[in-house]
């Protein structure tokens, strides 16, 4: 079944070289800036705290560094390690949704 299919690292790397993958790469790396700001501001939310307890956070930090700084190797380990995490795409989607929920809630309470 498609739901049971986990893309291989090679699949992920091929995807990252295509237009949708480039956009997803920028989105994934950019969400790390939100994570860093969240932590620096000391904001609190149970769902977000649970997501930030993932080992994906450090992989995402390294991914951000690899995506936004010059790399001699196109498929630097900072990029491939995050892509190799089986739940990285779903985790980023969940994290984005949780940040969106929190920030909309905050805006509405003003």
Order of helices and strands: HHHHHH
Ends apart, CA distance between termini: 46 Å
Structural class: mainly alpha
How many β-strands, per DSSP? 0
Q: What is the share of helical residues?
A: over 70%
Low-confidence stretches: none
Q: What's the tally of helices?
A: 6
- Please give the largest β-sheet: none
How confident overall, as mean pLDDT? 84
Strand content: under 5%
Describe the structure.
- The chain is an all-alpha fold.
- 73% of the residues lie in helices and 0% in strands.
- It has six helices and no strands.
- It is elongated, with a radius of gyration of 15 Å.
- The model has no long low-confidence stretch (mean pLDDT 84).
How would you summarize this macromolecular structure in one to three sentences?
The chain is mostly helical. 73% of the residues lie in helices and 0% in strands.
Topology diagram in text:
Layout: H1 9-16, H2 19-41, H3 46-52, H4 56-68, H5 77-84, H6 88-108
Helix pairs in contact: 1-2, 2-4, 3-6, 4-5
Main attributes?
110 residues; mainly alpha; 6 helices
């Amino acid at each position: 079944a498609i739901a049971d299919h986990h893309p291989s690292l090679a699949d992920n790397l091929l995807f990252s070289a295509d237009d949708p993958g480039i956009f997803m790469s920028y989105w994934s790396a950019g969400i790390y800036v939100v994570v860093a700001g969240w932590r620096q501001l000391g904001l609190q939310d149970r769902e977000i705290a649970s997501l930030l307890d993932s080992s994906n956070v450090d992989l995402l930090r390294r991914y951000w560094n690899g995506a936004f700084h010059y790399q001699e190797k196109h498929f630097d380990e900072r990029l491939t390690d995050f892509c190799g995490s089986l739940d990285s795409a779903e985790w980023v989607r969940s994290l984005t949704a949780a940040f969106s929920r929190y920030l909309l809630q905050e805006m509405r309470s003003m």
